[in-house]
Amino acid sequence: MSSANTAQPKPVLDVVGLAYGYGSGSASSDTVIRDLQLSVKEGEIVCILGASGCGKSTLLNLIAGLLQPRSGKIDVADASHASHGRIGYIFQQDALLPWRTVEANVMMAAELMPGVARDEARKLVLQYLQTFNLNESILKLHPASLSGGMRQRVSIIQSLMFNPKLFLLDEPFSALDFFTKLKLESEFYQLVKEKNKAAIMVTHDIEESVAMADRVLLMSQNGTFTKEFVIDLGDGPRSPESARGTARFAEYYRDIWAELKAVIAQ
């Protein structure tokens, strides 16, 4: 009997029993994250919704290694490969260096990562410019000369140059106008799927979470996940823009909003 050779997505992130508090002790009053479990696979986008201050950004900082957990385990695929930036962190406000040109910003990987040839890095930059609908002429400009949407595109390219397996996004599109937001959502969505990356995105926008995510997780004020929604918008090609016009999109929005209101009221 023959079986189809279908490769299963590999885990990119596993978080087990994670706890974090801002105090030095183990008192529950200063605990922000408690006994949290999370797994993300290749090609998967997970969105996290919750009230302000519930620990969403703290969770991203813990995964990125900017904070050390009180207890628990965070495993990122290939994290032992120090020559690769396995995590790309993208914020609401880009982290581009204003005194460097766009080219110097996106070519930082060639400076910081051993074994990366500058010529090959530049070819990759040009490919990413096409992916994100940016003209090569911007390479000679400084970030201050770019629009908000262009700066965020450049910021994503800067992260991609480090070849991350996992993206962490903290409200990355919230400061953009709606048209630019839709375009950038679609471009990033396609990139994650085509390049088999993984992404965790913190957002306050229910529409964005349903349009972008394979799974939506609700975080309570206690720093735990209380509800998971697996987003299935039906067969056929999907994009964040087309997703918003489906009947299931409206159903997910209503269900998530009802659950989110209950979580926030706790």
Would you write up a description of this structure?
- This protein is α/β, with parallel strands linked by helices and 266 residues long.
- It has one domain: 3-Layer(aba) Sandwich (Rossmann fold), CATH 3.40.50.
- 35% of the residues lie in helices and 22% in strands.
- It contains nine helices and nine strands.
- It has helices at 56-64, 102-106, 108-112, 118-131, 148-160, 178-195, 206-212, 240-243, 247-265; strands at 11-21, 31-41, 45-50, 71-76, 87-90, 166-170, 198-202, 215-219, 225-230.
- The protein has a six-stranded mixed beta sheet, sandwiched between helices. A three-stranded antiparallel beta sheet has the order 2-1-4, covered by helices on one side.
- Helix 6 links the parallel strand 6 (166-170) and strand 7.
- Helix 7 (206-212) crosses helix 9 (247-265).
- The chain is globular, with a radius of gyration of 19 Å.
- The termini are far apart.
Report the C-alpha radius of gyration, rounded: 19 Å
The CATH homologous superfamily is called P-loop containing nucleotide triphosphate hydrolases
Question: What's the pLDDT, averaged over the residues?
Answer: 87
- CATH architecture label name: 3-Layer(aba) Sandwich
Net shape: globular
Spatial separation of the terminal alpha carbons: 54 Å
Number of helices, where a helix is a run of at least 4 consecutive DSSP H or I residues: 9
Keywords:
266 residues; disordered N terminus; 3-stranded antiparallel β-sheet; Rossmann fold; globular; 22% strand; alpha/beta; 6-stranded mixed β-sheet
